[in-house]
Amino acid sequence: MKRPFTYIILLYLLTIGCSGKSASVIGGANGSTEIIVVDCDTDTILTGDDLEKFDSLFNAWVNNYNTNPITHLSSNTNDAKKLEQFPQLLNMGKKIIPCIITRLPDKNLFWTLTLYDELQDIDSLKSFDYTRGEQFRAQETLRKYVEAKLHKKKRVFNSDQEKIKAIRELAKEYGWEEDSTLSPREKDSILLNLDYEITEETFKFYKNGNNEE
Containing H/E element for 56? Predict the structure, then answer.
């Protein structure tokens, strides 16, 4: 079954083994969907077991934070460090930084920045603006990380229409159809916000038999 090519941007999620990139789907404005693709450091490769361990510990940490008297009524996010899962997550090392980043788009999890800040030793990938609150700092950290790690655009287009045409040609080449429920303006807006190289790589990935029917 063919799916609209906007759909395939949603789940290009190759985190198992962290073989070069990982991706995170986050909510955009007006119910739209955005995708973040970040490079993984070669010395911080995650295995499937690592991901399972992280998810288990992180989810338990979140549940504990939301129900434990120490943190439930506290306005000090550093109290999250007092929970038993925190040192266990910390012991997993820097390799879980991309995993933490994928959780920061959830604004209810801004306090998990305490873990990121402990593990991240690159100041340029941190936010030190404490004047606007922890939620802002978490989103600022996410922005800094993504800007530093985001797959850089390589192909230069001379106009918006040239880029739209090029991506439509990609879609045609790989057999993907435009979403008929969108207006022409909405379609053009989506295409303009796509990275040409990532889009092409994604089309190839699904064309090679990885598309779910």
Answer: helix 48-67
State yes or no: pLDDT of 85 exceeds 80: yes
CB burial string 46-85: b at 16+ within 10 A, e below: beeebbebbeebbeebbebbeebeebeeeeebebbeebeb
Q: How far is CA 178 from the centre of its chain?
A: 24
For 165-207, the pLDDT digits (tens) are: 999 998 888 888 777 788 888 888 888 888 787 788 778 777 7
* Helix axes of 160-173 and 196-205: crossing angle, nearest 10 degrees: 10
Return phi, psi of residue 171, to 5°: -60, -45
**pTM (2 d.p.):** 0.55
Q: Tell me which DSSP letter residue 72 carries.
A: H
- Report the alpha-carbon distance of residue 36 to residue 25 in Å, rounded: 6
Q: Flag whether pLDDT at 140 surpasses 90.
A: yes
**Which residues, 6 or more positions from 83, have their beta carbon under 8 angstroms from its beta carbon?**
61, 64, 65, 68, 70, 71
